[in-house]
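Input.
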Amino acid sequence: MLGMFSQDIAIDLGTANTLVYVRGRGVVLNEPSVVAITKAPNNKVVSVGRAAKEMLGKTPGNIEAIRPMREGVIADFEVTEAMMGYFIQKAHQRKHLIRSRVVISIPAGITDVETKAVRGAAMSAGVREVLLIEQPMAAAVGAGLPVLDARGSMIIDIGGGTSDVAVIALGGMVTYETLKVAGDRMDEAIIQYLRRKENILIGERTAEQIKITTGKAHAAGRDEKMQVKGRDLISGVPKSISITCGDVQEALTDTIQSIVEAAKSVLERTPPELSADLAERGIVLAGGGASLVGLDVTLREETGVPVFIAEDPLLSVVYGVGQVLDDLDRYRGLLF
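Output.
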């Protein structure tokens, strides 16, 4: 009876953004995974999502803006529970809802404790059943790869907290690697680069904007400039500098190389028959990191394998989780 009156939902619970898919309605919510709360002893939620992200680095003394997901896993259980409850209610467009079934994507290879934390947060947020799927598998489904076929497919999903590299065949991951090197680490690399080279301190939101506006992973990419404002580390006063795409490429060198090495490692561990499939079908890039200009070119040059970007890389995971939700009988073997 519960299933007749509730709307099943799929969630891409990301470090940077949370996306919610409702069966029959599609993607209904895409908001930053940020919660603003008052400090102890009250710990009252002030805002969630986009409004809370606007507060990052700007909050007064009694309010704290928190990102409860770090490197793909729950760093603050209570805040994550509050965030998920808010998003689920917003997706259903009502405060009192009949408990839904939910499918949630999680990074490949996370621990049993971390998996239990995701289940627990979802159950506490008001759902009746929690099913989990690994993010690279969800990204592959969302990117249109034939994950149930015997022929091999390879996906690289670069999110906010983790990058998942996986070779998939017959509904399972034949070989994979999860890195805690992704969008957040790129932002941190930009912050440290400007601190070291220009003696200027910038915040996380500014670093993210630099990455989006002037970020690139290959010398042949765009060549633009951007004005950046921050605090001079010597004088302590506000300072403005100009940063080029070449500067950002230099800042991201180590981060990009880590992803390249992970791709090479997975390819080296792939069985020969599947390697032949990959040589023909190539690698598919998904996640927000897939939008980094020139990353596909760098990976192609380093691995010798064709590289393609998913049609809508930012939404690949949530589309995949949504497809699984819509056809549970077919994809049941992908869930746990």
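The mean pLDDT is 91.
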